[in-house]
# Entry
Amino acid sequence: MAKKSSKPELSYIVRPLSPDDGGGFLCEVLDHPGCYGDGTTPEAAMADAQNAVTAWKKVAEEFGDKSGTSGQWRLRVPRTLHRRLHERAKTEGVSLNTLAVSLLSEGLGERAQASYRAGPQYKKRAAR
# Structure
């Protein structure tokens, strides 16, 4: 069995640079605003971006900034809301965490690229 990495996965966008911009590739790290890397290949740009993340974390630590790098928090909600969310997640065939992230993302206007289909029970309720 493969050992799970303790390093969290980062979200990247890698784009080719135009010849006017020097060519190669630019890598933007979505989880760390302002962290970019560039290189002659997508892999080189991602490696350079990882170096930028390491530097970003070092500076944040140096200045005592612990701004949400874990990606998790504990949220207490009323039991009725928890039950409704749990039922909806079950109906849609996703975990409660996946449903919550999706709803939060939609609420912020950042709709997830991968969509999920609503289950038949949810469709019936929505049609009423």
